[in-house]
């Protein structure tokens, strides 16, 4: 790994992107940035994780799933044919295929998604189906053991949510969302998770029918905690590269 430029792909599964929203620079989260960010929380967290990976020498790229038009797994099983020529890439030839090729070739893949109704966004789920399934084997070896996944890489899942941290376990988000982390780990060998809670959602809370939220409390939480979340994301990016450099 010492002589190789590591490739790190950061996949944003949120409809809110840095292109569509003004994002805080250099990890800042001030009173002004809280409103101005129109709360592209996932995009900001992924950007900081990418900065961390880049600081350790990785070649980084951030992609936004909502820029593509695609569907989930079509259950064609082309990737499960004997002597399949797909080489670990989903066979469906649509707009997502070049991105899936990049994901297969990357040494690090970090997927971020906001939480909608206790799960990933639909776009994120569809991407994961088509990224993971071609790497998953139904076959067995001469000893009757399942053939291990063909690809090994460092991966991570980032979840942003409106749910406060103190009730995350109470509503079992750690378990529900942890299923995706577990599947990534089983199929690629390593997966970390990062939960970003109690996010600031609206650019102007007064315009929305959202009386169950206190805008001052949400703003205060963002000012106090979001810089820490950004730092954790940066450290995550650093750590994934270091894992590879250390041979993990």
Write up what this structure looks like.
There is one protein chain. Mean pLDDT is 90; it is low at 22-37. Helix 2 (41-55) runs parallel beside helix 6 (215-245). A 5-stranded parallel sheet has the order 2-1-3-4-5, sandwiched between helices. 35% of the residues lie in helices and 14% in strands. The protein is an alpha/beta fold. The protein is globular and about 60 Å long.
Structure, briefly:
The protein contains 6 helices and 5 strands, in the order βααβαβαβαβα.
Whole-number mean pLDDT: 90
Helical element count?
Answer: 6
* Contiguous runs where pLDDT drops below 50 for at least 5 residues: 22-37
Radius of gyration: 19 Å
Biggest sheet overview = 5 strands, parallel
Order of helices and strands: EHHEHEHEHEH
Question: What share of the residues lie within helices?
Answer: 25-40%
Separation of termini?
Answer: 11 Å
Strand content bin: 5-15%
What would you call the shape? globular
Major sheet strand order: 2-1-3-4-5
Overall strand count? 5
Structural class label: alpha/beta
